[in-house]
Design goal:
six-stranded antiparallel beta sheet; 35% strand; mainly beta; globular; six-stranded parallel beta sheet
């Protein structure tokens, strides 16, 4: 199966309300949207195949638009089979035109028929795949897709809880075509994907591009391959052209481009490049075009510290499920953008986004907003028996390969996770990790490999766990709830340090699940106490490079609910399922600011203000070098009208910065509000402080 292709050119061609492919040879890759005009029908008795639905549209369907899940609305709890149907026209086209059918993701098992002929199957709910449908196309086409969202003991995700029979994973099974569907049309040779890596050299940087192609041309056909790298300003930064002679079938070609002084990707300067590759014939006509983004940066673990471009960083963030009441897993860009804008407002610079591969929109957002990621496949609380099953290993390798091939060029990704809270201390668990790590090394030798573990403090020796083989540790800890009393966290961290004295640690989950509160009103205050008590304890350990809170929003599940409930929303977020902030939202935002702002009014009577802005040190979470930041302030009256304001660059912000100002003439006697903000180079807020007059006693707030 192929990963999702990022195509340079997009077109939607419509004739009498039905999609039509362009006639004539395709001069370059063309993406044709198939998200509209679908019909859906549930098949609870599973007689669709027997009734021939793959060849003709049944009665009783409803019109839907993709992305779509049937598990929102009246079928919210339906586990079983659903069918999707669509028709489109194809006028006569050049016989050398090649057409593929792409699915961004279908949850979970999919069978696909075109004109009554099965063109392929896929298992897995979060990765893209494609089928070659060139030979199955007619002038009028009928597409049918059968999807089954039921879990099993050998599915991924599957029944979990480390061996508890028929125990659900901790999120909803949103069945359906949950991401985009489209066709791609190209010439007789086409680019399947690129694998782009940037390497520092004595003269600057070298960008290596391994280009994976397929050709239906006769062996030895001479072609030209042209690669162009465009910088963050969209100006041509480098180019390379070489002659190739393709045979039939799959091939790969490697090339290199030099960049003398590239703009490096980083948390505050997320500069993204674009690589455009063309295949042209002897007459200069473009046969296929493929574009993908990449970044120029180094991410390394050295002396148990995390470094980006040679600078040490300690990062914080939140995890987020792809889940909302109106859309479920079938999220629109507007929902994803809104949530991730909110995550940036919550100072997110690091995330293990959740337990499964993410929508490409989210990966692109992280690239362009400076969020470091550790994506994961949904091996969730698997038992030793599951790890011993060769089918599970083969399926895990397939899902990991699909995720890496689809997402591997994103500069925001620095590591891969092969699972969560499973039997990592068993012989089968250790063998599983070693097999997965070896497979990942072949596909992506430069990135780190780990897994999320909630059992580290219980080990007696490091060799008892696959953690001993991981490049760094992802530690889930819920002291105060699942893992024991809150007071035990200190000794647990010390034990992990003793067991693994050379490994960097990221706290991949912590927080307070509301099911442990005596009553619902106690849940969020307990969450705030957990954050306030545990963040300083984590920051005090030099070898902890980051902390990720679980999680951003309450999400739908069959587990971890209040007693008596069999379905509902897990109370675990800093916003509820409707994205309404809880008090813990402001607490997390305040405690993860990059600077501490102390402010007070001056004079008797009040005639001005004084403030000191101090950047976080390496002994705090978060902390990282602050290049190009701004200090901004505004003095407002009771109506919110600015009476005075100012800003100045902070330069290399490494030491406390004073700020003083006087009240403008005529402001005496008014209620006043002073707003002080530290702004990132991207314009987002890194730390802020508000001071009111008349005021309560001034308290320094980080």
């Amino acid at each position: 199966m192929m990963g999702m292709r990022k195509l340079l050119q997009a077109a939607v061609l419509w004739t009498f309300g039905l999609l039509a492919l362009a006639a004539g040879p395709a001069p370059a890759a063309t993406r044709i949207d198939l998200d509209r005009e679908w019909q859906f029908r549930a098949d609870p008795d599973e007689f669709g195949e027997w009734m021939g639905w793959m060849a003709s549209l049944p009665s009783g369907t409803e019109a839907v638009t993709v992305p779509h899940t049937w598990n929102v609305g009246r079928l919210h709890d339906f586990m079983g089979v659903g069918w999707y149907f669509r028709s489109f026209d194809t006028p006569a086209h050049d016989p050398l035109t090649h057409v593929q059918l792409h699915f961004g993701a279908t949850f979970y098992k999919a069978q696909v028929w075109l004109n009554g002929v099965e063109v392929g199957r896929h298992e897995g709910g979060f990765t893209a795949y494609a089928f070659d449908i060139t030979t199955q196309l007619h002038e009028r086409n009928y597409l049918a897709v059968r999807i089954d969202n039921r879990p099993g003991i050998a599915t991924i995700p599957g029944y979990g809880a480390r061996g508890t029979p028929l125990s659900w994973y901790d999120w909803w099974s949103y069945g359906g075509m949950v991401r985009d569907v489209w066709l791609s049309e190209s010439g007789p040779a086409w680019i399947q994907r690129q694998s782009i890596r940037a390497e520092k050299s004595a003269a600057g940087w070298i960008v290596h591009d391994q280009i994976f192609l397929h050709s239906a041309l006769p062996a030895g056909t001479p072609l030209q391959l042209r690669a162009r790298a465009y910088g963050p300003d969209d100006q041509l930064a480098a180019s390379h052209t070489q002659s190739i002679a393709l045979g039939g079938g799959d091939e790969d070609v490697s090339l290199a481009l030099g960049l003398s002084k590239p703009r490096l990707w980083g948390i505050d300067h997320p500069d993204v490049y674009r690589m455009v590759v063309d295949i042209t014939g002897h007459d200069g006509q473009v046969i296929d075009t493929h574009a993908d983004s990449f970044g120029v940066r180094t991410v390394e673990i050295r002396d148990r510290h995390l470094l980006i471009n040679g600078e040490r960083v300690r990062l914080t963030g939140l995890a987020r499920h792809e889940d909302s009441p109106a859309e479920g897993l079938a999220e629109t860009p507007a929902t994803m953008r809104r949530d991730y804008d909110d995550l940036k407002a919550l100072n997110t610079t690091l995330s293990r986004p959740v337990h499964y591969p993410q929508n490409s929109f989210i990966l692109d957002y992280a690239d362009r907003h400076g969020i470091l990621l550790v994506p994961e496949i949904p091996v969730w609380q698997f038992s030793e028996a599951q790890f011993s099953d060769p089918k599970v290993l083969a399926l895990a390798e397939q899902q990991m390969r699909e995720m890496i091939e689809e997402a591997g060029n994103h500069p925001s990704i620095f590591a891969w996770s092969v699972g969560n809270e499973s039997a990592w201390g068993s012989r089968a668990g250790i063998d599983y990790f070693r097999s997965m790590r070896a497979m990942i090394r072949q596909l992506d030798p430069e990135r780190y490999v780990s897994f999320a573990d909630d059992n580290l403090p219980k080990l007696e020796r490091a060799e008892q766990s696959a953690a001993n083989d991981a490049d760094f540790l992802l530690m889930n800890q819920y002291f105060g709830t699942w893992h024991g009393p809150a007071a035990a966290l200190d000794s647990a961290l010390d034990k992990v340090n003793t067991l693994f004295p050379s490994k960097m640690v990221i706290i991949s989950e912590f927080g307070f699940p509301g099911m442990f509160a005596k009553q619902l009103s106690d849940a969020d205050p307990s969450r705030i106490r957990t954050i306030e008590q545990q963040l300083p304890m984590l920051a005090a350990r030099d070898w902890i490079a980051g902390a990720i809170m679980w999680c951003y929003q309450d999400y739908k599940s069959r587990r971890n609910l209040s007693p008596g409930l069999v379905e509902g929303f897990v109370e675990h977020g800093v916003v509820d399922e409707m994205r309404r902030p809880k008090p813990s939202y402001a607490a997390w935002q305040r405690l993860t600011g990059l600077a501490r702002i102390e402010a007070q009014w001056t004079g008797t009577p009040v005639s001005g203000f004084a403030a000191t802005v101090t950047p976080n040190s390496e002994r705090q979470l978060p902390s990282y070098p602050m290049h190009g930041y701004q200090l901004a302030w505004a003095l407002k009256d009771e109506a919110g009208i600015a009476l005075a304001s100012g800003s100045r660059p902070l330069g290399e912000f490494t030491s406390p910065e004073p700020l003083k100002g006087g009240l403008p003439q005529g402001s005496a006697g008014h209620a006043l509000q002073l707003e002080i903000r530290v702004l990132r180079p991207t314009g987002t807020v890194a730390a802020e402080r508000t001071l009111a007059w008349p005021a309560h006693p001034v308290v320094a707030v980080p």
